[in-house]
Each structure stands twice: as C-alpha cells, then as structure tokens.
Write a structure and sequence with these properties.
Helices cover about 75% and strands about 5% of the residues. Helix 1 runs antiparallel to helix 2. It is elongated. The protein starts with a helix and ends with a helix.
Length: about 200
Amino acid sequence: QTWCQIEQTKLKNVINKFSISIKACLFHEKSTHDLITISKTQNELKKAKLKAEESNELKSAFLSNISHEFRTPINSIVGFSNLLTDSDIPPSQHSEFVSHISSNSNKLLKLINNLLDVSKMDSNQLVIERENFNINQLIREIHSKYLINDSSTNQNDISISIPDNYEELTINSDKKKFLQIFENLIDNALKFTSNG
C-alpha cells in the first residue's frame, strides 16, 4: 500500500509527538532520579552535621575534663617543689615531698600518654602490637604495683581473685594497651568508688 503525502505527514507528526513524549518521560525520570539523589544527599549532610556537632560537644567536654585532670598533678608538683626550697621545712620531710613530686609526675605522664593515644585513635594512627602473654601474671604485676607504689589508696581496698584452674591463661593482644586500659580502670575505680 502506498501512503499519500497527507498520510505520511500525519504519520511523521505522530512519530514526532511520540518521540517528544518519550523524551519528556525520560527527562521526567531523570529529574525524579536527580530529586531523589538531592534528597538523599541532603539527608546525609544533615546526619553528618549532627554527627559533627555531637563530636564537637564531646571534644569540648573531654577538654574540660582533661584540663582538670592535668591541673591536679601539676599543682601538686609545683606546690611540693616550692616547699622543697622553703628553709623552714625540715630536711626529713624533703624525701616525702620528692616522693609526691615523683608520683604526680608519673600521673601526669600517664595522662599525656592517654591523650596522645586518644589523638592517634581519632586519626586512625594507633598501632596495635600483638603478642602472647599470660594475663593472670600481668594482673598480679599490676596488683603488686598498686600495693607498693600508690600510697594515696588504702592497700586493703585492692585485691584480686584468680581461680586456680586459670593459672596459665594466655591471650594474644597488645600487652602495653591492655596494661594501660587495666590501669585506667583501676585508677577510675579508686577515684570514683568509695568501696566495692
């Protein structure tokens, strides 16, 4: 069948309209997809903003707490150092003052190391050095250290209980970090708990 010129024109018009409709649908689909993407991005940005604000509040609280933690040993070091220069203080008390200075210097060093580790964790630069070690032996060493070195606590308040059948319990972990965590737990327990 041969199409006349009028029919061919009508067919071209229908095809053009159909083509325009398809392009409009594709544009609408792309626009809808773009709107969905923009909406998702806005939601992600809102979540990121909330997380950043929360992180900022936590850092502010952390800095507020840490400044107090730093002031205590520094004040003690400065105070006992000044007392050492006082000629009215009998020489018999000097060794006691030096002991306080040494103890608070160690506390300050521990705080600084903890702060550096927090900074390394925050920047994903904390290195874990795994090794096998006897956990019960390490706990006994920590216990002995607190009984001997910490004159500010009542020695009877610190006790350990290890069942006999767990004498050789070995774990694979970072021994220094484990020791640091355990000491922080004990320090906090002694600092914030009256007994128990």
